Amino acid sequence: MSPVNVTLSRLDGLFIARLAEQAERYHDVIAQIKSIVHSTNAQLTSDERNLLSIAYKNITASFRTSWRTIDTLQRNTVHHSTWQQRQLMQRQKERIEQDLIDTCKDVVELLERFLIPAANPGEEKVFYCKMRGDYYRYLAEMSRSQTHEQYAATSLDAYKFAYKHALNTLDPAHPTRLGLALNFAVYYHDIRQSPERACFLAKHAFDEAMAVVTDVSVHPQSLEDSLTILHLLKDDLLLWAGEMTVESK
């Protein structure tokens, strides 16, 4: 019997990516979306780019959780573990670090070579530039000394560009703009250790969004997403304000 030549259409690829996402096979999701990127001059639909974002987020979140778990174990057992055990824990942590670094560099390359250059102004460009800022932030978390500063500076540039573009093109209550503001504030808190700047940015975004969030023209799904992010912004504001109060005593 002669082999059957099967050519997947874009809809087929999207269906497989959705199926893989439901099955939590996130590398398969990325492979399918990458195939679509290369066959469509990097013009993704909202559904396609959301699937890509979800897949990378889940993979990196798993690595970051694993890294923090081992880091905590190292600190908690430093006085009652053997030298060999400490070496094994360090080796495992370094393996996780490398897996995370490789994943971040993979998504950054996809963004910088294909998605950002082809992005339309507005939500699409903000979405991708925010992703670029996020994954350079993760790289900064995993690196030290000069490399840390390089990644931190690149992340800051990406967030600044995305936020300036968001201010000019997106409504204050738009979930993509709010999500960017949240992550940008986290950058200032976690990477720059500046709860003051984090609070300033988060409060500005929160206040502007609250002034328009009840607009009846907002799509119900967008409104739900916006309210979720507003709750996260409020929680972080309270947490960071508490840190500043403790530090001032």
Low-pLDDT ranges: 1-6
Q: Could you tell me the strand content as a percent range?
A: under 5%
SSE order, one letter for each helix or strand:
HHHHHHHHH
How many runs of DSSP E, i.e. beta strands?
0
Overall domain count: 2
Instruction: Average the pLDDT over all residues and give the rounded result.
Output: 92
Shape call: globular
Helix/strand/pairing category: mainly alpha
CATH homologous superfamily caption of the largest domain = 14-3-3 domain
Going by CATH, the architecture of the largest domain would be Up-down Bundle
CATH topology of the largest domain: Delta-Endotoxin, domain 1
Site (Interaction with phosphoserine on interacting protein): 64, 137
Domain 14-3-3: 10-249
Organism: Laetiporus sulphureus 93-53
Family: Belongs to the 14-3-3 family.
